[in-house]
Amino acid sequence: MNRFRMLVLSSLLAVSLGARSAVIEGQQFDDRIRHGRHRTRAQRPGSARRGWFKGYAAGLYLGQKATTAEAALAAPGPKRVRMKMMVEVESKEFAKAFEKGMKRNLAPAEREALADRIDRFDRTVLALGVLKKGDTVDLDWLPARGLVLSVNGRAKGEPFAGESFYAAILKIFIGPDPVDKKLKAGLLGQT
Questions:
Q1: 140 HSE (CA, 13 A, CB side)
Q2: Residue 7 in contact with residue 53, Cβ under 8 Å?
Q3: SUPFAM superfamilies attached here (predicted)?
Q4: Which of 12, 29, 66, 139 could be joined to 59 by an S-S link, Cβ 3.0–4.6 Å?
Q5: CATH 3.60.15.10 fits 3-187, yes or no
Q6: What region does 43 belong to: left with phi over 0, alpha with psi -120 to 50, or beta?
Q7: 182 or 174, higher pLDDT
Q8: What is the pLDDT of residues 102-124, one digit of tens each?
Q9: What is the pTM assigned to this prediction?
Q10: pLDDT in tens, 82-95
Q11: Packing angle between helix 91-105 and helix 115-126, nearest 10 degrees?
């Protein structure tokens, strides 16, 4: 298993209940964030750790609490997956992890229907170069715009249309075969 896959599997999530923010392995996560006029809040606490690598800390923000993948995917309004990098990683490894996650969680027909957006997403991620320790990667669903990929608050590439594409990305984290089962449980407040 290559280093980045180990890093992804060793990802961490935690969001503090009742606090304005939580600090996890030195990474701060706000309890609530704004998307234009909409406010989203972090899910309940949870954590995932495997091996001795800590690749990133992650949080899931929704307009309402969700304890199942189906509820999170169906939640109306803006959504965000925030990843805070805890190690340096080349974007090609990051892109491979996303591709592998989609293959594990989408039926072949679903992947085929999204092929053009998956290819464009891969190109956008590859263009990021090196993600450095401390970088923040946001995957936002903004209903009026689509999926917006941002690094350190700066949008990268054009938005990706279609909520089905955002759902495909979200399934990497909370789908039937997620990157890490403990991370999924944490993102869904099941811990």
A1: 26
A2: yes
A3: Chalcone isomerase
A4: 29
A5: no
A6: beta
A7: 174
A8: 999 999 999 999 999 999 999 99
A9: 0.79
A10: 888 888 989 999 89
A11: 160
